[in-house]
Design brief:
The complex is a heterodimer.
Chain A: H1 3-16, H2 18-56, E1 60-65, H3 75-78, E2 86-87, H4 88-95, E3 100-115, E4 118-127, H5 131-134, E5 139-142, E6 154-157, H6 159-165, E7 175-178, E8 181-189, E9 203-207, H7 208-215, E10 219-220, E11 222-227, H8 233-247, E12 254-258, H9 259-302, H10 304-312, H11 317-353, H12 363-380, H13 382-389, H14 393-398
Parallel strand pairs in A: 4-9, 6-8
Antiparallel strand pairs in A: 1-11, 1-12, 2-10, 3-4, 3-7, 3-11, 5-8, 6-9, 7-8
Helix pairs in contact in A: 1-11, 2-9, 2-11, 2-12, 9-12, 9-13, 11-12, 11-13
Chain B: E1 2-13, E2 16-28, E3 33-37, H1 44-51, E4 59-64, E5 67-68, H2 74-84, E6 85-89, H3 100-111, H4 115-128, H5 144-156, E7 162-166, H6 174-189, E8 193-197, H7 201-204, E9 209-214, E10 217-223
Parallel strand pairs in B: 3-8, 3-9, 6-7, 7-8
Antiparallel strand pairs in B: 1-2, 1-4, 4-5, 9-10
Classes of the chains: A alpha+beta, B alpha/beta.
The structure holds adenosine-5'-triphosphate and magnesium ion.
Chain lengths: 400, 227
């Protein structure tokens, strides 16, 4: 029997046992679709996190006081010393390093924001004009803190705050009281929502020296540094640490966090998660394979007389084996392809429902799902096919 | 030319062994018309199955057209079944999913005959057995006589030299059975060897050579002119 005739004959058989075939194909396709959709979700989450990080800028280095590298404890504290604070002077020092493109000191606290008939507590960021490009923020109106105008009392409002305090009149140019000082509203941030656990819609930003006066401190919360290029992140980190060590009397008491380190950790975690989820989904494929085996064994039983007849009219054991084999192969193939289509449609629906989640199944996952489906389906049909081919034709013909 | 020498076939049924064929010796020349009769369990079907290479004897030698076929491999035996032997069964054994034409085509497909040639040969067979109107019907839509005609068309589509029929009219009423017999006899008149197992004395008597069996042995073997 030629291969073409074998394929055609078994395809006809598959089609004529309609309900049985639809059920197997469905089971197979659900397994494949599960792998595709779940890995799309996992990989989508991974890319979502990566995108979040790069929206902050992957050239970003964050300097914080204290050595909190691996254990999280401060060795200085163990020795009875407190780590030295980061100061504006430190920030300016870093700004002069050749690897550094720009920097933004960050001082953070809370204060009361008020106009004559309105008052609320807000989170206050003290920084400089470079905060905007470093954090990839956007202004909706007005201007940000001007360079060289650090002495003037300007304030930039988060979108929601601006709306709350000045719902009817333009906020730009208005005066507003923060703590005990009067500020001039110079700009309004574009609404952005959460960005790395920070709702920029509900903050206000003032020049860093005003913030230090307001909070009565000389220390900084963080210094954000943008390296000139991505390839120099590590050398920039070393240069920052060296500069701070020198400025802090030879004490190694600062920590520099790079985006890459955090990103790599998230990447690993989410990739492991995707793999685990894919593995669980793949189990449903093996279940589908067992279903194929079961159904094919029933088919051999049902068609025993037919197998006897085929042998009587000259089919070899190989012909019979191939017929049952290709029958299972058709079921698995159609199931796998249908499952792939279902999976892609499902991922598409997820992308439509959650546009920020890039839910694309990785190619390896789709290929693996189709491969496993075909393999388990065909492997599971081996036993039934061999069983069919070994039937004694005389006893087979005698069966009803 | 069929030549059986000391063919023995036993079946084990638990502790017991049944001697289905007991040292059978039989020569059948090409084109003969042979009927095999005997009580139930006398070994008629077993003999037919061994001649048709569906079953293997435990002992003895079987030569078909001068070739010892008992020693052949499974694949070689399948090829002989395909090319030289046509089976006709009491219960037709048509594949229910396939149409009459497709059932008839099956041996050609197994043999790897090209599609274009297959179509022509099936068309001719449908014509010869007056089944053209039923070509695209499934077995469930056919009468008993039509089903057996499809089965005979399938058995002869490869132009075998031997037709083995095990009670071919057993499931048919008298009139239709007689029509089927005429078809088989017509094939025999064109040179095919026809070996038929039957319980029906009247049908058995139509054969030129009548073999009677009992307890796995041939107890009589008579040749006479057709009535
Ligand atoms: N597969 C088998 N297993 C065990 N015993 C068998 C088997 N096939 C046949 N026999 C036995 O062999 C003997 C001959 O059987 P066979 O079918 O050849 O008889 P038969 O003459 O065709 O009978 P019938 O007229 O009823 O068809 C019987 O005793 C039967 O029980
Ligand atoms: Mg019998």
């Amino acid at each position: 029997m030629t291969l073409f005739d074998t394929l055609q004959t078994s395809l006809r058989t598959v089609i004529s046992y309609r309900i049985r075939s639809v059920l197997i194909v469905l089971a197979m396709s659900l397994g494949v679709a599960a792998v595709v959709i779940l890995t799309a979700l996992g990989d989508g989450a991974r890319n979502f996190v990566i995108n979040q990080f790069s929206s902050i800028g992957t050239n970003l280095l964050v300097v914080l006081p204290g050595r909190a590298e691996t254990t999280g404890s401060f060795p200085g504290a163990v020795l009875g010393q407190t780590p030295r604070d980061l100061t504006l002077h430190d920030a300016q020092l870093l700004g002069r390093l050749p690897q550094v493109k720009r920097y933004a000191p960050l001082s953070i606290g809370a204060a009361e924001l008020s106009i004559p008939n309105r008052l609320r507590e807000v989170t206050v960021l003290g920084s400089n004009a470079d905060l905007i490009p470093i954090r990839h923020m956007k202004l909706a109106q007005g201007s940000f803190l001007q360079h060289g105008s650090g002495r003037s009392a300007q304030i930039v409002l988060g979108a929601k705050i601006a709306n709350e305090f000045f719902p009817r009149i333009p906020a730009i140019g208005q005066h507003i009281r923060l703590g005990d000082s009067r500020f001039l509203v110079s700009g309004i941030l574009a609404p952005q929502g959460e960005s790395m656990g920070f709702n920029t819609d509900e903050i206000v930003i003032i020049p860093v020296d005003y913030a230090q006066v307001l909070f009565n401190t000389t220390s900084l919360f963080r210094i954000l540094v943008e390296a000139k290029n991505h390839g120099q992140i590590e050398s920039t980190k070393q240069a920052i640490l060296a500069a701070l060590k020198q400025s802090h009397d030879g004490e190694n008491d600062s920590t520099v966090i790079t985006q890459d380190a955090i990103l790599a950790t998230f990447d690993r975690i989410l990739e492991a998660l995707t793999l685990a989820v894919a593995g669980i989904a793949a189990i449903s494929l093996i279940v589908a394979g067992i279903l194929v085996m079961n159904v094919m064994l029933v088919a051999v039983n049902q068609r025993t007389a037919e197998i006897g007849l085929l042998k009587a009219i000259g089919a070899t054991s190989m012909d019979i084996r191939r017929l049952f084999f290709t029958e299972a192969a058709w079921l698995s193939l159609v199931g796998a392809l249908l499952g792939f289509i279902f999976g892609q449609l499902g991922s598409l629906l997820i992308r439509i429902a959650y546009p920020q989640l890039p839910a694309w199944a990785p190619v390896w996952a789709s290929l693996a799902a189709i491969g496993i489906a075909l393999f388990t389906g065909i492997a599971a049909s081996t036993l039934p096919a061999v069983k069919a081919s070994r039937l004694n034709p005389v006893t087979a013909l005698g069966k009803k | 030319m069929i030549r059986l020498i000391d063919i023995t076939r036993t079946f084990k049924m638990g502790e017991q062994t049944v001697l289905a064929l007991n040292q059978i010796n039989l020569n059948i020349t090409s084109g003969e018309y042979v009927s095999i009769m005997g009580p139930s369990g006398s070994g008629k079907s077993t003999l037919l199955n061994i001649i048709g290479l569906l079953d293997q004897p435990d002992a003895g030698r079987y030569e078909l057209d001068g070739k010892v076929v008992t020693e052949l491999t499974e694949v070689e035996q399948a090829q002989i079944r395909r090319e030289k032997i046509g089976f006709v069964f009491q219960s037709f054994h048509l594949i229910p999913r396939l149409t009459a034409a497709e059932n008839i085509e099956l041996p050609l497909t197994l043999d790897g005959v090209p599609v274009s040639e297959r179509k022509i040969r099936v068309q001719n067979a449908l014509q010869a057995f007056e089944l053209e109107q039923r070509a695209n019907h499934r077995p469930s839509e056919l009468s008993g006589g039509q089903r057996q005609r499809v089965a005979i068309a399938r058995a002869t589509i490869m132009q075998p030299s031997v037709i083995l029929a095990d009670e071919p009219t057993g499931n048919l009423d008298h009139k239709i059975g007689a029509e089927v017999m005429v078809l088989l006899e017509k094939l025999q008149q064109h040179g095919t060897t026809l070996i038929m197992v039957t319980h029906d004395r009247e049908l058995g008597a139509r054969a030129t050579r009548q073999i009677a069996m009992r307890d796995g042995k041939i107890i009589s073997d008579q040749t006479h002119d057709p009535v």
